[in-house]
Amino acid sequence: MFSKACEYGIKASTFIALQSLQQRRVSLKEIAAEIDSPVAFTAKILHQLAKSDILKSNKGPSGGFEIPKEKIDTIMLSHIVFAIDGNSIYEGCALGFDRCDANQPCPLHNKFVGIRDELKDMLNKTSLYELATGLEVGLTYLKR
């Protein structure tokens, strides 16, 4: 459903949020290892997220990535998805057709519209804080 970049972006943001709640900055290599992603690919994703003001990048010996604590509960998954994939998840055709809408629907269009609306609602209502605290107390995980 999400692009691979978006999946890694959500995982990385969640990990960074958890570390930020514990007042810790994390390095690119540590993030890549935690989310099991290639370092170069992770760097591109983190750059997009920093450019979208979702996380902060600090250079130097005590540098790394962080999210200001007061901001973690205001960042919704929809912000991360939009920063990486744009609106394509809300507008794309379930069967991958270039054109699919109410006027020219694919065979799945009418069923898929409702699912897309529910997904959008969930992404708009789920905060990074919710995901990070689930990790913190051991209710969720980033690796299998």
UniProtKB/TrEMBL annotation:
GO molecular function annotation? DNA-binding transcription factor activity
Superkingdom is: Bacteria
GO CC, one annotated term: cytosol
- Check the record and name the InterPro entries matching this protein: Tscrpt_reg_Rrf2 (IPR000944), WH-like_DNA-bd_sf (IPR036388), WH_DNA-bd_sf (IPR036390)
One Pfam family per UniProt: Rrf2
Q: NCBIfam families from the xrefs? A: rrf2_super
**Can you say what this protein is called?**
Transcriptional regulator
Organism whose genome encodes this protein: Marixanthomonas spongiae
